[in-house]
Amino acid sequence: MAKDMTLLWGSGSPPCWRVMIALEEKNLQGYNSKLLSFDKMEHKSQQVLDINPRGQVPSFKHGDIVVNESYAACFYLESQFKSQGTKLIPDGAEEQALMYQRMFEGLAFYDKLCAVIFYDYYVPEGERLDSALKRNKEALVTELKLWEGYLEKLGSGSYLAGKSVTLTDVVVFPTVATLFRFGLSAERYPKLGEYHALMKERPSVKASWPPHWLENPKGQDTLKDI
């Protein structure tokens, strides 16, 4: 089955990482994997555009079926391979509701992270304002406190939507890992730090850890004062 799948991806991209974790959790190793270079603009290559006219990664194909949006690809994999690997959508209404809620809150979480760590990338030099970056940092702090509170309420050793791994963890963990990669303090945010350490030990996360993070484990200190 996995041999019919192709994933074009970039190292360290949370949307790509979401799909890679989902594939691992569903025991779909052996898919056609092509690592592309953002520096060389390979995500704008014809190979990507043929699958994804937006010129973005992930670009994912299963046979003739194309699902490029990372959340959509994760839902698709769980739906098509329900009985295989980890069950990622719980049966109970309450557990399912919490999973969906946190999943989609995860999109705002990712946006607020990107607004800080990629501010210089997204905003042209002449349009950058210290006051805007300060607002972005304050919004990220508010968001971090929310997630810290969610985890505290669930108790030690919990995942983002309960005691079991769900699609929420598949799609939101890459955001959390990126926070710590960019210098977030586990002492300041102990519940997120505990969650990060818990998820890092999962085989699916170890198998899909960004290659350039392995080559250079140090990361950056952009968020050290957040």
Which descriptors would you attach to this protein?
single chain; 226 residues; alpha+beta; Glutaredoxin; Glutathione S-transferase Yfyf (Class Pi), Chain A, domain 2; 2 domains; four-stranded mixed beta sheet; 10 helices; 4 strands; globular
Architecture overview:
It is a single chain. The chain has 226 residues and is of the alpha+beta class. It folds into 2 domains: 2-81, Glutaredoxin; 93-215, Up-down Bundle (Glutathione S-transferase Yfyf (Class Pi), Chain A, domain 2). 53% of the residues lie in helices and 8% in strands. The chain has 10 helices and 4 strands. It has a 4-stranded mixed β-sheet, with helices on one face. Strand 1, helix 1 (14-25) and strand 2 form a beta-alpha-beta unit. Helix 1 (14-25) packs parallel to helix 3 and helix 1 crosses helix 7. The relative contact order is 0.14. The mean pLDDT is 95.
Strand order of the largest sheet: 2-1-3-4
Backbone structural class: alpha+beta
Taken from the alpha-carbon principal axes, the silhouette is globular
Alpha carbon gap, first and last residue: 44 Å
How many separate domains make up the residues?
A: 2
Average pLDDT, rounded to a whole number, is 95
Which segments are poorly predicted (pLDDT under 50) over 5 or more consecutive residues? none
CATH class of the largest domain reads Mainly Alpha
Protein name: Glutathione S-transferase rho
Organism: Cyprinodon variegatus (Sheepshead minnow)
GO molecular function: glutathione transferase activity; maleylacetoacetate isomerase activity
Pfam families: GST_C_3, GST_N_2
